[in-house]
Amino acid sequence: MKTFPDTFLWGGAVAANQVEGAWREEGKGLSTSDLQPQGIFGPVVDRVAGSKSLKDVAIDFYHRYPDDIKLFAEMGFSCLRVSIAWTRIFPNGDEQQPNEAGLAFYDRLFDELAAHNITPLVTLSHYEMPWGLVKQYGGWGNRRVIGFFEHYARTVFTRYQKKVRLWLTFNEINMSLHAPMTGVGLPETSSKSEIYQAIHHQLVASAMAVEICHDINPDARIGNMLLGGLVYPLSCKPDDVFEALQENRKWQFFGDVQCRGAYPGYMLRFFRENDIQLDITDADRQILESTVDFISFSYYMSGCVTADETLNQQMRGNILSMVPNPHLQSSEWGWQIDPVGLRTLLNLLWDRYQKPLFIVENGLGAKDIPDATGVVQDDYRISYLNDHLVQVREAIEDGVKVMGYTSWGPIDLVSASKAELSKRYGFIYVDRDDNGEGSLARSRKKSFYWYQEVIATNGASLKG
Length: 464
Fold this sequence. Notes:
Elements: E1 9-13, H1 16-19, H2 61-75, E2 79-83, H3 86-89, H4 100-115, E3 119-125, H5 131-137, H6 144-159, E4 166-170, H7 180-184, H8 192-216, E5 221-227, E6 231-233, H9 238-260, H10 265-273, H11 282-288, E7 294-298, E8 303-305, E9 315-316, E10 321-322, H12 339-353, E11 357-361, H13 379-397, E12 402-408, E13 428-430, E14 442-444, H14 446-456
Parallel strand pairs: 1-2, 1-12, 2-3, 3-4, 4-5, 5-7, 6-8, 7-11, 11-12
Antiparallel strand pairs: 9-10, 13-14
Helix pairs in contact: 2-4, 6-8, 8-11, 12-13
């Protein structure tokens, strides 16, 4: 009977702007997420008096976290991935002194997790940054933002050095290529040069955070986070195979810099051929040599690419546009379900970097409807997660070092792409709809008890 390593961390993952709510409480400033009420692909809008966003309350985790953490503990979580809202600590992003009320909130959150023996995995910047840094400085396009992020990182590393041992820098850092406002605080109309310059500043800031974290707490481990955008060639034609190589390099580049400490040759060629001239200093190159301790990533689906434009009928996914794979089924949102792709991705990343891996997002979004007894019978979610976890186990058998697995959305939350609650991921149902109506009451879905058994048996209960 195959099980997972004894040290394997089981849990779930959430993001501050998708669960906390309390968007202006206790000194919190405006973030880019606050100004994108329609989600990461939506427009930036002024938040005038009376305007509302589903994220303003979200699922009210800010006030209800003790009860939610009890539910996570009931499932047996040994890890919870959370993010710190940068604007709770520095409301505008450029202040010298942090907001004590914001720091105190995360103290309470981490203490609550500790009381239930749940290890926090903390992301510094998850799909949001202070709007003040965008408005006053132009977002990550301005080199000065590196210093503001450094100050923020140093502040929280120092404050929580006895409470947090696992850190991530930026959520799905390669997402900036597809949603630049969310990723680097730049408008959608920005040029490739502007976006890659902002990305460079962010990569330097990430490496700087690694160095600071190690200096403040040598026992801590800090990783990066990639959107695992695995694509296959649509056919075995050599042109399609090479097109898939090039497409995968678009996201692997971020891992290469953060794990190897320098820009790879294929990106330097890309910059040359696209007339992208970046301001990269010798000091930047030295900082980039501070590489991450482990690699974390999200994985929801795979896709295909082809060099044949006549066949290139693209399907819009979460962030990536990919050609449908004729051998796979799709979710309600058109995301193709590919459990074996997760094993492939784990092996690919392990072979490429030889650093421990952490699956920090994986899950199935669906329109869950409670039955007559009030319970969501989400066998479709159980099937999806079971099949993916079986492939994680197989990758571990392959020799891949996997630190843990935190499913995306252990509790229903506001989705990032379109800021809706109808796309549910959780093991825990939250009574709130896309119009903001509902009691916010929590209830256990069928998958709650399934995941509880998976954790209790360390994966032995998985079927397959």
